[in-house]
Task: inverse folding
């Protein structure tokens, strides 16, 4: 008898437990379905937006493809900037024997990237390797390392390495921690400590642009769009609190032109080209030569090979220089190790 | 033996302990004055931060070459100082040193204050603080910054748990204390999560504390090792060192112990805790300070003497700048007044008394701060390639007033955290003190 009653109790408890489980399951399932339904309907509502036609009629259209044009442009440019140019491996060769410190490269670069005069993407340095060796001028752009320390340390993937070899920066994502500045052994990076040079102009253009959009002047707005949209391959407009550096003029490469510095040089210092084709073109003479031959014949080298950064910039040694070094301009107080 | 006290004696003793340790709790006039002063000073410093937000990081002295300055040095210093919690509770606690119980909570509070504010210090160095969220959205695991964010957060959490667990019996006791305001007692009751003080509860508590104390050791080592890797992971001369991890960790123990001694001196004097934080405690912690300083000195010798022997060209420039160049005064000042002299002085028993140790600790702490400055700044003044075609303020780093004020703000915030925590909780664990006096179940007596 005892046994029987406990059994009974047990089965009743079991039954109640099962009912409870099923009931709570049903309630939860129902709630989830209801929430899902609500979500779907709200999504449908949101995906249609109201717009004013040219005839001043209010209509409802699908939101897709009608969001803010600048933002579309940004994503497109940013995406394109991250993908790079297919099948290319950009490479630069700097012939130190020809550099006479004309600084046209620095000027062209600062102009294109809207930099202040004290900040450089490319900087022509006066070098002297040891006491008894000759001084020489060395243009120093970003080395676009194949093993870039700056990219390794970036916490947010704001600076990245493209398949075509270029290291770029997305200043819409950069948080301004400057770890990349600390990590770069070539001091290639700069930071916008204050308002960028053309910030005011950019702001004015932007407000003009929104006004045009509001007034429906699509044509004029399209013209201005280029000036307000952030081009990751030019890194313009520059942003306060973010990093900038040499980009190998990725925007010019996309339209089949040489980088700003390369075409600006009056002395034939720069060669630029594609490693895959094994061909580089001199920016001044427009003469195209074999990359491998150029490097072999002139004993080309890369900066600080021992660090393992694998730069994409090669140097040809400053032998048989085409000009005498102006001794009086030599900087005596050198701030480096 | 101790159990042979009569019940009356135990009651009396417990009453004295409780009233002594509870006395500082609550808000009085000096608290108002102190917090008012801190708040005013903080507002001034926050105005400096507002200027930085408005005008950009250019208001600080950092530029393209020396791009990490006082903020980063201060961040390293804060992470360093927070390591004291682990040294006292975990290293000494687990090794069975019973005498640490009155200073364990102080060290935990210091740890929480510094570790929590370290996160803010790093934000003050960001060019785009409003994009902090990007670290969580786009975070890349390759970057040591991600590791740092992870371990510092974990350390703050474990330190909070290590502060809270030993508080539970005290909170229960405080919730029954009629002298305290009602709302405070209610809060204590809530926080004490139904603590009854049974033997089995004590057993669970001891176990939990032990587990957390073990857990905090690798995390604490990690926070400062990873912080050192922010530098050591680069190829820069002066940072490119394999001993940076232990070098930073041992330096951290020196800085943290300095702060602990200053806090011990202050609380003992102002909270009238002479019977609890005794000269014995100062003597012992003084010996520990000598030990950690000696270890740190050893690492310093390695860090400077080994490259100094070889004088590789890049290293030579860096070492000359430090030892005989622009930073020589600071370098030797830090090494002598912040490390060597304290070691020598603290070897004498006479010096291991509260007041001399308080003064020595001030030197230690100031030395430790400038030591971080010397680790961060000079290296960047000598990159591999020459610094040319830039204005003079790009070449030499000159901190600005705004930078100093923002750095000051971080210290004010730590002081506020320590002040508040030491005003709402007994700064010395009541139940542990009672246990040591032979009162094993204080809950039954009151």
Result:
């Amino acid at each position: 008898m005892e046994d029987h009653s406990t059994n009974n109790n047990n089965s009743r408890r079991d039954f109640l437990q099962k009912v409870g489980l099923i009931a709570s399951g049903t309630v939860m399932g129902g709630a989830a379905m209801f929430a899902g339904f609500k979500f779907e309907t709200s999504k449908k509502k949101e995906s249609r937006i109201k717009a004013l036609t040219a005839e001043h009629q209010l209509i409802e259209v699908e939101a897709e493809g009608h969001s803010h044009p600048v933002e579309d442009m940004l994503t497109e440019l940013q995406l394109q900037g991250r993908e790079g140019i297919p099948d290319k491996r950009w490479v630069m060769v700097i012939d130190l024997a020809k550099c006479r410190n004309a600084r046209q490269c620095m000027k062209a670069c600062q102009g294109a990237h809207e930099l202040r005069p004290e900040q450089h993407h490319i900087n022509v340095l006066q070098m002297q390797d040891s006491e008894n060796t000759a001084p020489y001028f060395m243009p120093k752009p970003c080395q676009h390392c194949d093993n870039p320390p700056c990219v390794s340390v970036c916490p947010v993937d704001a600076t990245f390495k493209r398949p075509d070899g270029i290291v770029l920066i997305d200043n819409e994502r950069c948080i301004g921690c400057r770890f990349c500045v600390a990590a770069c052994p070539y001091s290639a990076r700069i930071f916008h400590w204050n308002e960028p040079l053309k910030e005011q102009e950019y702001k004015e253009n932007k407000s003009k642009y929104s006004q045009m959009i509001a007034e429906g002047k699509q044509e004029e707005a399209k013209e201005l769009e280029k000036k307000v949209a952030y081009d990751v391959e030019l890194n313009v407009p520059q942003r306060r609190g973010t990093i900038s550096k040499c980009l190998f003029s990725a925007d010019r490469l996309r339209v089949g032109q040489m980088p700003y510095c390369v075409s600006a040089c009056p002395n034939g210092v720069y060669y630029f080209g594609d490693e895959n084709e094994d061909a580089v073109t001199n920016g001044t003479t427009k003469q195209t030569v074999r990359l491998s031959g150029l490097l072999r014949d002139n004993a080309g080298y890369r900066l600080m090979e021992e660090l393992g950064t694998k730069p994409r910039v090669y140097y040809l040694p400053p032998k048989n220089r085409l000009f005498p070094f102006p001794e009086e301009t030599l900087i005596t107080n050198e701030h480096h190790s | 033996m101790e159990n042979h006290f009569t019940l009356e004696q135990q009651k009396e003793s417990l009453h004295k302990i409780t009233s002594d340790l509870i006395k500082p709790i609550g808000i009085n006039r000096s608290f108002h004055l102190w917090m008012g002063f801190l708040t005013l000073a903080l507002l001034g410093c926050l105005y400096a931060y507002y200027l930085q937000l408005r005008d950009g990081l250019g208001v600080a002295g950092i530029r393209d070459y020396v791009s990490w300055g006082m903020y980063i040095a201060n961040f390293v210093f804060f992470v360093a100082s927070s390591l004291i919690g682990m040294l006292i509770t975990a290293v000494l606690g687990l090794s069975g040193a019973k005498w640490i119980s009155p200073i364990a909570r102080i060290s935990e509070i210091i740890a929480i204050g510094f570790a929590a504010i370290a996160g803010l210090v790093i934000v003050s160095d960001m060019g785009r603080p409003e994009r902090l969220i990007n670290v969580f959205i786009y975070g890349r695991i390759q970057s040591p910054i991600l590791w740092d964010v992870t371990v510092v957060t974990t350390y703050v959490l474990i330190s909070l748990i290590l502060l809270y667990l030993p508080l539970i019996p005290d909170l229960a006791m405080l919730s029954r204390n009629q002298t305290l305001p009602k709302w405070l007692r209610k809060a204590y009751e809530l926080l004490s999560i139904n603590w009854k003080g049974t033997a089995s509860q004590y057993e669970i508590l001891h176990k939990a504390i032990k587990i957390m104390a073990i857990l905090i050791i690798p995390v604490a080592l990690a926070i400062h090792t990873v912080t050192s890797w922010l530098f050591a992971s680069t190829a820069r001369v002066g940072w490119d060192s394999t001993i940076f991890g232990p070098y930073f960790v041992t330096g951290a123990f020196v800085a943290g112990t300095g702060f602990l001694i200053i806090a011990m001196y202050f609380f003992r004097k102002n909270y009238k805790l002479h019977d609890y934080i005794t000269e014995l405690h100062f003597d012992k912690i003084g010996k520990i300070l000598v030990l950690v300083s000696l270890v740190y000195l050893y690492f310093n010798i390695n860090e400077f003497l080994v490259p100094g022997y070889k004088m590789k060209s890049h290293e030579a420039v860096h070492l000359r700048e430090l030892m005989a160049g622009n930073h020589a005064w600071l370098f030797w000042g830090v090494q002598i007044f912040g490390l060597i002299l304290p070691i020598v002085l603290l070897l004498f028993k006479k010096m291991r008394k509260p007041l001399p140790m308080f003064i020595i600790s001030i030197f230690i702490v100031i030395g430790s701060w400038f030591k971080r400055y010397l680790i961060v700044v000079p290296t960047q003044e000598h990159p591999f390639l020459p610094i040319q075609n830039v204005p003079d303020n790009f070449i030499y780093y000159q901190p600005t007033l705004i930078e100093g004020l923002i750095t000051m703000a971080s210290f004010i915030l730590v002081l506020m955290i320590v002040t508040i925590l030491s005003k709402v909780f007994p700064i010395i664990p009541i139940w542990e003190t009672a246990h040591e006096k032979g009162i094993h179940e204080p809950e039954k007596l009151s």
